[in-house]
Amino acid sequence: MVRIGSLPMRLLCLEYGADLVWSPEIVDKSIVGAERVVDEKSGIISYIKNDKDVFATLPSEKDKLIFQLGAAEPEMALAAAKTVEQDVSGIDLNCGCPKSFSILGGMGAALMADPDRLCAILDILVKNLNVPVTCKIRIFDDVEKTLELVRRIAATGITALTVHCRTRAMRPSEKAVWGRLRDIVKELPDLPIILNGDVFEYKDVQRARDRIGVTSVMTARGAAANPSIFRAEGKLSAMHTAVELTKICVRTSNIFLNTKFILLQMHPETKSDDYIRLRSSRRYKEMCEAMGLAEFYESEGAQLINDRAEPAGTGKGASKTSAVKRAKKRELEDGDSKAVHASKAPINEGPVVLEPADAVEGSGPTDAAEERPAKRIKA
Ligand SMILES: Cc1cc2nc3c(=O)[nH]c(=O)nc-3n(C[C@H](O)[C@H](O)[C@H](O)COP(=O)(O)O)c2cc1C
Q1: What is the pLDDT of residues 325-337, one digit of tens each?
Q2: Which of 360, 363, 377 to mutate to test the pocket of ligand 1 (most atoms within 8 A of CB)?
Q3: 3-state SS of the chain: helix, strand, coil percent to 5?
Q4: In CA terms, which of 104, 177, 195, 279 is 20 to 30 Å from 147?
């Protein structure tokens, strides 16, 4: 998920039992040419382009990490996939995003209207990558048209297909039409089909398997609201998971504004003083205080943040690590409004842009709304 599925959230979901995690959609052009930099202390692998941390990962998630691409051109898609191939377990092509940024660029759901192009991208990826290729689509209103498309997609040799059970025009608030997947499952008995849409409880996994016959399910808003959805034993409190997430964000030096955005979505007590303090926090110290983690910050966080953000070396020999540090220094504690408003570029992974009010997938230019998620993602 754009803005939500950055490294800390993925790590937490895995800790709670997720089998696989997807990166946010990252547009091919934004990662092609990025420099891969490994931080020796933390082990974090960062893909840096134009001094921005485009994508960050840790070797510990590699076996379960699918990198999701936004693409419209086969060659560019392949170049992007090749850039990150060594650090991920699969490449997914997003063909479901209905946002104008994607559609105007010929990406996302626009690809469903151009199956030749969609399949050309999958073809080149399948033929040239050493990791499995998957694809995520929506459904058409027309059943036969949907089946025709999935037959063509399956023929490219992909390893799994995720279907968001809504049409391009449907709003996230409209009920996902799980039943439409039955035909797809029947049509493609040998291809693992992953159901997506309105999965909000652990028991939905079995329900979807029993009723629809799918292999698996993908949850987006359910995990964003409470990542412990993946626990077979039942969810933990949303506040507990938000606190755990904060710690991981500090430990991985996640970009401050991204952490804040995710926490504001997750925080269960929107009327509390702590929520208000979180909303107005401008650096990790203040954020940790608002999350009841003042002691954690003093004992562990301050050092970690300083290590990552210390001034970079300069001049001849300025190392790759310095590039990361330069990027991090700007991004770790920059909750001031100037930084927010000035930032038209991705805040964190991806082409990032999100209109939380719409709660739909997508990307595009960021805007000042980053600081104040308009509507929370409801599970
Ligand atoms: C904030 C947000 C960001 C999203 N980003 C992506 C994305 O990067 N790639 C993608 O395939 N879908 C993205 N989606 C769509 C979800 O993956 C999913 O298809 C949709 O929310 C329906 O599933 P759900 O009912 O489990 O939320 C996003 C959704 C939201 C709310």
Answers
A1: 655 655 665 544 3
A2: 360
A3: 45, 15, 40
A4: 104
How far are the Cα atoms of 92, 126, 207, 317 from residue 159, in angstroms, in the given order? 10, 9, 23, 44
| Spatial separation of the C-alpha atoms in residues 57 and 26, rounded to whole Å | 13
Residues 6+ apart with CB under 8 A from 374: 355, 356, 357
- The structure tokens listed for 359 are 């709660």
Domain 7-230 matching CATH 3.40.50.20: the answer reads no
288 counts as catalytic: no
- Cα 258 → chain centroid: 11
The protein residue with its alpha carbon nearest to ligand 1, atom 22, reads 197
Among 196, 249, 221, 242, which Cα is nearest to 11's? 249
Pairing of β 65-70 and β 35-38: unpaired
The one catalytic residue among 13, 95, 97, 135: 97
Which range (13-27, 123-137, 168-182, 364-378) has the least confidence?
Answer: 364-378
250 close to 294: Cβ distance less than 8 angstroms: no
Pairing of strands 21-22, 65-70: parallel
Record the tokens describing residue 108, joined without a space: 């996302």
Residue with CA at minimum distance from ligand 1 atom 18: 220
Long-range CB contacts for residues 236-243, cutoff 8 Å, separation at least 24: 237/268, 238/266, 238/267, 238/268, 239/267, 239/268, 239/269, 241/12, 241/16, 241/266, 242/266, 242/267, 242/268, 242/291, 243/291, 243/292, 243/293
Domain ranges of the chain: 7-230, 238-371
10 Å Cβ neighbour count for 343?
A: 21
How remote is the CA of residue 24 from the centroid of ligand 1, in Å?
9
How confident is the prediction for the chain on average, in pLDDT?
86
Report the C-alpha gap between 224 and 13 in whole angstroms.
Answer: 9
Alpha carbon separation from 375 to 275, 360, 366, 371, 378 (Å, rounded): 14, 12, 16, 12, 9
Indicate if the pLDDT at residue 281 is higher than 90. yes
Greatest Cα-to-Cα distance within the chain, rounded to the nearest angstrom: 63
Place of tokens 């927010």: 340
Distances (CA, A) of 176 to 123, 196, 291, 344: 29, 8, 34, 33
CA distances to 325, 344, 371 from 47, rounded to whole Å, are 13, 19, 24
